[in-house]
Structure prediction request, 129 residues.
Amino acid sequence: MRPIAKAKPQREPTIALINIVFLMLVFFMVAGTLSQPLDSDLNLVETRELEGRAPPNALVVHADGRMTYAGQDRASVAEFIDALPEEERDTVRLLPDRALPARRLVELTRELRGAGAERVMLVTERALQ
Prediction:
């Protein structure tokens, strides 16, 4: 009697495919985050001593919710919109304090859109790192 040959278990080819896809993912993540180095002779502007000022046509919203425009307190969004020149009412700049709750910021943008602003632009600080 001849013994019955056992069928060899076949290796699953999907494991190798998963490994290749994972390595490609890691490669593209690393390649996408690398940035071009700055020229060695380039000296960037230092802004440590620069006094920060809001753009002249921006609604400044403080952490406590108080709003100012052109150095004057504004009680409401409608009062701010009324103070804007007619040609500046379609695009409004909003300068929120970092500590302003996000919920209040969303409410303000909705109020500005409801008052006639077509675009609401948030003015933020950008850091080079």
Observations:
- The helical segments are 14-33, 77-83, 102-114.
- The mean pLDDT is 78.
- Strands lie at 58-61, 67-69, 72-74, 91-96, 119-122.
- The two ends are 77 Å apart (CA to CA).
